[in-house]
Amino acid sequence: MHNTILHLSDIQYGRHHVDKDNNREPLYPEKNYSLQLEKILDDLDILKNQDVKPGFIVVTGDIAELSRREEYQLADKFLSGISGHLKIDRRCVIMVPGNHDINRNVCKAIRTLSEEDDEKFKRPYFVKFKYYQEFFHKFYEQAKFPKGLKPYKFAENQLFVNFYFPDQGIVFVGLNSCIDESEIPPHRGNITTDQVRKAIDDLNAYGHENRMMRIALMHHNFIRSPNNDDENLIDADEIKPHLIESNFKIILHGHQHVPNNEITGKNNNVIHILATGSAGLDSETLPDNSRRYQIIDIHDNQVKVYMRVFDNTKTYKTGKGAWRPDLEPSQKDIYYEFKLSGEIKKQAVQKQDVQYNGYQDSEKPDQEIKTYCKKAESLHSNLPVAGFVTQLKAPIDIDDIYVPLHAMINLRGIDEELYYDAKHAQKCLKEHSLEISLPDAFKETAKRGQKGIVILGDPGSGKTTHLKRVLLWCLRKGPDKSDLHKLGLPENMLPIFLPLRELTDPDKGLDSFIQKQLTSVHLKTPPGFGERLLKRGNLLFLLDGLDEVANLNDREKVSKWIKEAIDMHTRTACLLFPAVLRATARVYI
Description:
Distance between the termini: 60 Å
CATH architecture of the largest domain: 4-Layer Sandwich
Shape: elongated
CATH superfamily of the largest domain: Metallo-dependent phosphatases
Number of domains: 2
Mean pLDDT: 78
Helix content: 25-40%
């Protein structure tokens, strides 16, 4: 396998592009000054004479500056000019959006309209990509797709784009790192594990017999810079296990306008991360960093990277200013090179009949789950004794002090009736409810097609203790034992205790919150364990501490988050969460 990639980023056509318009003075006010396109074509011809000829053009975001139609028209001429010069089809020009490819004016207008209609403006705020999407589909109208390959699509229900090239043995996975980006802060990179999981599922379903190298594309930098800038990719740690496990070899990105070469992973399972600078911004915008691009030549597992920098003092065919090698002082060749670790594995379609509850055989699910169960039981089995005026040394097991609760079924079937507090609820339901044991409550929720049980009670009435008791039920009677059905729960159900007071960002979703809890200092589960549990399904989410979310607006957000989590994870059997109310602890379904 031999493929050569021209990697461009942050070409950013607009007011700060090196090709001036709107009566702005050019960077080099000479008669023989030429456009950026001609400069880069000169350089590609020089490299061609050294047997370096790209077969792909990859653009990792920030194609425009303000995401305006006229900016994309200029970008179209630039990219089609390069592809025409290299004699490659537009299908081989591959792109992802950057934070400058959202139109903030459109975003602001739709947000205002949503507020007037009393509706929530929800991420990924897809309308912000209006002109990028228009440019994307128009650009590929003239592309030639072989039989069996569908035209590329950029849409709200598919934010990623997989660019398949089976004959060349390579696939580029274009990930959208601008999920959270809008006209208001925080401005940050975010992909979400859901997007990555869907992209990988699409790869696995493709099922082509050839071995294809997997390269991930994104705009924001994958490894955070020393200043911990929140504009970087905030969920890199969450998506990294998915990329490593799915045998990705290279990540390409831009964003920081600085070239870089880093590695993430361990031993033989590593990904090489290659960044390039801006290929289009002027020196006023980049006073400390000249324009840059790079060419990546991949021959089997051997990789050569030709880094190029624009030199204002150099003169070539088109006059002042030309590209040259971007070399380290000790570098002898015009490239640096490295070897990819591991083999390009043959990717097989993941079928349910070769999995164990969503795990692959190599992941040793039994041992991971047993280790988690042991740690979770140790963490939650004892009652904290902080604050006792005593020399008490022995831990108090929750089983020793637990007082059983009963559940009350609302027989009136009013799903969204609201109560001032638990006392008010008990009064309203007294004549229209049935009291049953809590194990029977689980069975009743399944019978009624419901997935939630709410525990109402005063602070200190035992809601959290009860949740931990349910967790211990599951851990001590399962997952390897067969008597969970006596509790009204399915066999092999696994509990996850989730303290809502630690949910600081509901927008990041349930997957992120679970992984954060499971990698805490007390549990320290392996990377990706939370995601593997979600694939496994059959989970009991124990959501604790809604009454500890003091701010009413935040509590409303958390409540919506809970509803969205229930709707999203249909393979979970049930959720329990205490609500802040003032009465003796009762349970309602």
